[in-house]
From TrEMBL:
Lineage: Eukaryota, Metazoa, Chordata, Tunicata, Ascidiacea
PANTHER family, A to Z: APRATAXIN, APRATAXIN-RELATED
This protein's name: Aprataxin
SUPFAM superfamilies: HIT-like, SMAD/FHA domain
EC class (word): hydrolase
InterPro entries linked: FHA_2 (IPR041388), Histidine_triad_CS (IPR019808), HIT-like (IPR011146), HIT-like_sf (IPR036265), SMAD_FHA_dom_sf (IPR008984), Znf-C2HE (IPR032566)
GO molecular function: DNA 5'-adenosine monophosphate hydrolase activity; DNA-3'-diphospho-5'-guanosine diphosphatase activity; double-stranded RNA binding; mismatched DNA binding; single-strand break-containing DNA binding; single-stranded DNA binding; zinc ion binding
Amino acid sequence: MRIFYRLLKMADDTVKCYLECCKSSHPKLPLPHNVPVIIGRTPELGITDKLCSRSQLELTSNCYKRYVLVKRLGANTSQINGIDIEKNKSSRLEEGQDLHVVNGKFPHRVYFTGCQNDTKTEKAVVPKLPTKSTGLTKSDLFIKQPERKKLKVSENKSKVLNSKIKPQEKFSSESVYAFDSPSPMSSRCEKKAESNKRAPTHKHWSQGLKAAMEDPELVVQEDEQIVVIKDKYPKAKYHWLILPKDSISSTKNLSTDNIELLKHILKVGQELATEVMDKQPDVEFRFGYHAVASMSQMHMHVISQDFQSSSFKTKKHWNSFTTDYFVDATDIINELETGGKVKDRRTMTSLLNEPLKCHRCKKPQKNIPTLKKHIDSCQK
DNA sequence: GTTCTAGAAC
DNA sequence: GTTCTAGAAC
């Protein structure tokens, strides 16, 4: 037991957790290890939206295991990576995941710093805990936020990094979707964490696209609004993803403000497809979004309809691109233009278990190998 | 999202 | 026996 408490103390001494506003609307908020911190419609967070409860969420960090438990107390929904948190239930929030405090608004993230000796973190003195015994208020938790580094702005002109479009069968075997961007921890602490299997330093797999967006091996084109990447596991001869540079975790968080962006994404996708079809008129493309995407950071698929790829392996792969689970980009745009929001499609996940059938002739298929043979020859 | 693998299906 | 899949783990 003593060892257990010593380990907990070590975690508390060396790793600190902070809640950061993605829009920099307020200073970062320390989340002391294992101490529930309540956030909501308070002056400290700058949230005035009445749909947000004053006690919307209870956050309890685990600095040792590097995650935060998020319990929803408020009546309206909160989301982690676009997925609703049920009332009075706790969901796990990991570094890099998006936490929307209410109704897809007020994006925040958590991060963990390394040790106290780390020069990047030494200014971030963790205040005393907001317990009744300390008598401190929530505002006591706020501290001065270091100035953010300005990001480089891309050139205005669309930049084609790899204009020669080839079928996507020869990708690097490097793990592109594994998190590999710089950690805020110092190298000394990285080594320390690396040696501790129970304190993983990598981000959740669902954050892999964000790293992929910065990988020159994958990026084929970009402009000031979007990035086009090759899908690392293409499900057809041609399969790209187009992602906005602004942080938008899923289609569910879209508003009418994003209509022009969505039209731009579609236009870029259509131009890519046209480049292929000019040389191969028989190649067909679709442009769309998964009803419920697994990977964070909204992305539109540009995918040829041959489905000839060694990465296409499962019923889920097939149904995600050939049933209504694949939502045409034009449908998403229309929904925003007519209703101001995107339909909630969470119930559509059942489509992923539908029996296999050919997307052209609709003939049922026994299994994946049979389906693959069939679609190679089916002309409808 | 992928990988791995036990057990079902053949 | 081999092939295939679904679900757990990551």
